[in-house]
Design a protein that fits this description.
The chain has 5 helices and 7 strands, in the order E-H-E-H-E-E-E-E-H-H-H-E. By secondary structure, it is of the alpha/beta class. The chain has a 5-stranded parallel beta sheet with strand order 2-5-1-6-7. A two-stranded antiparallel sheet has the order 3-4. The longest helix has 18 residues.
Length: 164
């Protein structure tokens, strides 16, 4: 089973994924995959290589085979590390862009969290630091275009409303 949790930055996707993990981990194996680990930096975060990687991850999950990928280091752009995605009963992919068209046919449940992007930006800056404000402003524009092109909200199975 693959569950995606999508919505604007700062909407509470990680919190929902953590709560789901806590709720289900005593019943079956669960892994949470964060989209922040899959982006290749601030420039064009939703490029075709992201879709390709998501598709490979979803296909590996369905085939119950491990998948190894590199993680972008947000603090030292020259460094990457490895991430192993193990075969589990439930793979939760959370983050902006997780519900994109490239993997929808492989996903069991698609969740969208509706939230004000400006309030979300404030949350992100409070969490990650005001020093990324310029990059986040660009990211907000990228996510807006991505969501329009992908029709992510409209394709969701469940629509939730985030709280401030």
């Amino acid at each position: 089973m693959i569950v995606t949790i999508d919505g604007v930055a700062g909407a509470g996707k990680t919190m929902l994924a953590s709560a789901m993990n806590e709720n289900y981990k005593n019943h079956f194996s669960v892994q949470v995959l964060h989209m922040d680990d899959l982006y290749e930096g601030w420039d064009d975060p939703f490029k075709a290589t992201l879709s390709k990687k998501l598709t490979e991850i979803a296909q590996a999950h369905i085939m119950a085979t491990p998948y190894e990928t590199t993680i972008h280091d947000w603090h030292d752009i020259l460094t990457t590390s490895q991430l192993m995605i193990k075969p589990v009963d439930m793979l939760i992919i959370e983050g902006v862009g997780s519900g994109q068209r490239s993997i929808r046919q492989l996903v069991s449940t698609k969740i969208w969290i509706d939230f004000d992007p400006i309030v979300g930006l404030k949350r992100v800056l409070a969490r990650d630091g005001a020093n990324i404000e310029k990059e986040m402003m660009g990211f907000l524009e990228d996510q807006k275009v991505h969501f329009i092109e992908e029709g992510t909200r409209e394709a969701a199975d469940f629509l939730l409303f985030g709280k401030d």
